[in-house]
Fold this protein.
Amino acid sequence: MPVEPADAVEERLPLVRLLPLAVQHVLVMYAGAVAVPLIIGRALGLRPEEVAFLISADLFACGLATLVQCAGFGGVGIRLPVMMGVTFASVGPMLSMATAPDVGLLGIYGSVIAAGLFGLLVAPYVSRLLPLFPPVVTGTIILVIGISLMRVGINWAGGGLPTVTRVVDGVPGAFANPNYGQLTGLAIALLVLVVILALIRWGRGFLANVAVLLGIVAGAVVAAALGLMHFDKVWAAPWFALVLPFHFGVPQFQPVPIATMCVVMVVVMIESLGMFLALGEITGRGITRADLARGLRADGLGTLLGGVFNTFPYTSFSQNVGLVGVTGVRSRFVTVAGGFIMLGLGLLPKMAALVEAVPQVVLGGAGLVMFGMVAATGTRILTAVDFRNRPKNQFVVAVAVGFGMIPLVAPTFFRNLPHALHPLLESGILLAAIAAVALNAFFNGLGSAEAARRDASASAAAAEHV
């Protein structure tokens, strides 16, 4: 019998198991990966073939950034099972830049490159925030990440977003989505969910590991049979196309867009801290300050590569963190293989178009499971927090979760505050992180982090012993 490695993160799986698990990771992140280039390309009024190139470039850069983060080299890369994709925190600022006549696409790329360099420089300093994240803070943030992501999964199940962005006379606007909440789509999402849960309940070994992939495949087959999955773009797409740096021209570096994107980079890095800590809990690997610094440097380098290869800022994708929790497969080589698949999709537009043809309702059923697992991880961490002897910890969780829900339940809550603050205020994860850190410091003091971690570890060990 093969001996399991002491560290499951370093486990090297046979190819017959590795590839389906990697494809599963690609499928659950694909919709999010291509959404940003679609939004920005349409806001800029680019031709369809140029938008298609943006998507290919994004997939290619996703692969590069994922390999940097998972495989790692030198002091870059956290070497955990992470998939990288374009952060949605950058969408609002980039839409503003896209509609500014003196900025445009080349100004966006200049700001992205500068933000990537900024991220590389400040990563060691941001990593020093680790002592501010005892279990009561970490668990709260991860809980909010999962709850926030549920909105994404629910909207996928509904068929996208209740409103869609269209460009009319060069101005982007929001319009009702006529396909949202259709009974057929909801039924397909439910089918995918039932298949996944059935495989997790009755499947064994590898079959249970790829439950999400098999659920998506089953949903895609039903969607194709019902005429909801279209292959026109697949037939029209070329087999091979190179992604060359600076395809649209030399980037332009302007102070205001650069400053804005650097603020976005800070937001991304704070959110990444939560993702890395969540992965540390799921994989059972303790996260050190040096690990965080390597992971944050990879965010910066991935963003820098994004600007060079005609795309946007990159971060760790939360849905893939949830997938690690669902499958229980913790090997980073699964996502390394996923990175190579993303590279291939960027160079093979026909294959990318085939993956893109999978309807969002199919992904919705899988999203409910994966994102719920992230929230469940946060809850599990909170069970190790001492609420009996430190009852004020309850207020840390209660108020921080409330702050995290503001952008989720009231998107226009901060509309009258200065526009420059919106990248900070529109991230529920960041609001929850700031509130949890501040409240923990207020009630427990900054020196409480290490003691709380020791108490949580002792409680967890005692629970396992029992």
